[in-house]
Design a protein that fits this description.
This protein is an alpha/beta fold. The protein has eleven helices and eight strands. The longest helix is centred in the N-terminal third of the chain and has 27 residues.
Length: 348
C-alpha cells in the first residue's frame, strides 16, 4: 500500500564533521538566518562573515570534536535518525516519514521533493522544538513555505508549532530525571537555550505583554501564549511538579548567550554563582529545549558549566539525558502527528 500521508521531522542542524571547514559552513548558514540574528542583512553579513564565523569556527570545531562519536558521528543527527526510525514503526505504512535539518544535511528541500515525487496528499511539518521561537520553529515554517511556494500543486499542509506542555513529553523528561535519583542532589536547574530579549517582544502582537513584569512568565496567559520564556517556565514547572520538586529547589535559567546585548535572564552562568554562594554542592540539570542530546547539552552543560561550578566551590553537575529514544517521547510524537494531520477527505 502506498503511503498518502507525509510527516517531516525537522531539527536544528549539525556540521557534517567536526572539521573547521564543515563547522564554518554550518555556522555561516545558521547565523545568516535573519530570524536567528534579526538585524539588517548588510550588518548581519559583516558581523557573521567578518567576525563571528572566522573567529568562532576553530573553537567550536574543538567542541564538536569533544562530543563526536567515533561510530555514530554527530549525537544530534544520530538521535534524530533514531527518532525517525522509531516513529516510522509507530505510524506504520500509511505514512512516509522523513527527517531534515534546518541547517545543513539532510536538507528540507530534499525531504519535500521526496513527498512531491510520491504524490503525498498531506504533510505534517514537525519542528522538533518544544517551545515556540521565531528563531527556531518560525524559521522552519518560513523555509518550508518559501520552498513550497515554487510548487504548482499543493498537498494539505499543517504545522506542529509548539508542544511545551505535552503530557507524554513531560513524563518522558521526568522519567529520565528519576533515573538520576533526584534525592542525591540539593538543587535543580532547568537550563534552556537563550534568545535576545528583543525577540521576546517581537512575538507579542497584542502590545500587552510586558517582559519587564516580575511575574510575567509564571503562567501562560492570552497575551504571552507565544512567549518563548513563558513556555520554558511552563515546561520546567510541569516537570518539577511531576517529580515533586519544590519551587524553592529549582531555578529556570538560559544558556548559549551570544554578544553583549540583553538576552533572557537569568543566565545559567550567573545562576551557578548564586547557587554556589548559597552552599549548594550538587546540581541536576534538565535541558528541556532539546529533544535530542547535542553540543549544548553534552558539552556546554556537562563540561563548561560543570567546570565553572566546581571552580566556584561546588562538587558536581549532572545532566539529565534528553528525550532521545525514550518510548514515551516516541508515543508523544505519534500522537502529536495524529492531532495535527489535515483531513484529506475534506475539500477546501
Amino acid at each position: 500500500m502506498k503511503a498518502k500521508k507525509g510527516v517531516l521531522l525537522i531539527n536544528l542542524g549539525t556540521p557534517d564533521s567536526p572539521k573547521v571547514s564543515d563547522v564554518k559552513k554550518y555556522l555561516d548558514e545558521f547565523l545568516m538566518d535573519g530570524r536567528v540574528i534579526d538585524i539588517g542583512q548588510f550588518q548581519r553579513n559583516l558581523l557573521v562573515r567578518g567576525i563571528i564565523v572566522p573567529f568562532r569556527s576553530p573553537k567550536t570545531a574543538k567542541l564538536y570534536e569533544a562530543i563526536w562519536d567515533k561510530e555514530h558521528g554527530s549525537p544530534l543527527l544520530y538521535y534524530s535518525l533514531r527518532q525517525l526510525e522509531l516513529l516510522r514503526k509507530e505510524l506504520g505504512p500509511d505514512y512516509q516519514v522523513e527527517l531534515a535539518m534546518r541547517y545543513q544535511q539532510p536538507s528540507i528541500e530534499e525531504a519535500l521533493e521526496k513527498f512531491k515525487a510520491n504524490l503525498i496528499e498531506s504533510i505534517v511539518i514537525f519542528p522538533l522544538f518544544p517551545q515556540y521561537a521565531s528563531a527556531t520553529t518560525g524559521s522552519v515554517m518560513e523555509k518550508v513555505m518559501r520552498l513550497m511556494s515554487k510548487w504548482n500543486t499543493f498537498p494539505q499542509l499543517s504545522f506542529v508549532n509548539q508542544f511545551y506542555d505535552n503530557e507524554q513529553m513531560i513524563e518522558a523528561f521526568a522519567e529520565n530525571g528519576k533515573r538520576k535519583d533526584p534525592t542525591k542532589f540539593d538543587h535543580f536547574l532547568f537550563s534552556f537555550h537563550g534568545l535576545p530579549m528583543r525577540q521576546l517582544k517581537n512575538v507579542d502582537n497584542s502590545g500587552n505583554h510586558g517582559c519587564a513584569a516580575t511575574d510575567c512568565c509564571q503562567k501562560i496567559t492570552e497575551s504571552n501564549k507565544f512567549c518563548y520564556s513563558a513556555q520554558c517556565h511552563a515546561t520546567a514547572r510541569l516537570i518539577a511538579e511531576r517529580l515533586n520538586i519544590p519551587k524553592e529547589d529549582y531555578t529556570v535559567c538560559f544558556q548559549s548567550r551570544l554578544g553583549k546585548e540583553p538576552w533572557i535572564q537569568p543566565y545559567t552562568s550567573e545562576v551557578l554563582k548564586d547557587v554556589a554562594a548559597r552552599g549548594k554542592k550538587s546540581l541536576l540539570v534538565f535541558s528541556p529545549a532539546f529533544v535530542a542530546d547535542c553540543l549544548e547539552t553534552l558539552y556546554e552543560i556537562t563540561e563548561e558549566y560543570g567546570t565553572e561550578f566546581r571552580a566556584l566551590g561546588g562538587e558536581s553537575v549532572e545532566l539529565v539525558p534528553s528525550l532521545n529514544e525514550n518510548p514515551k517521547w516516541i508515543s508523544a510524537m505519534r500522537d502529536l502527528v495524529h492531532a495535527h494531520e489535515p483531513h484529506t477527505d475534506v475539500l477546501v
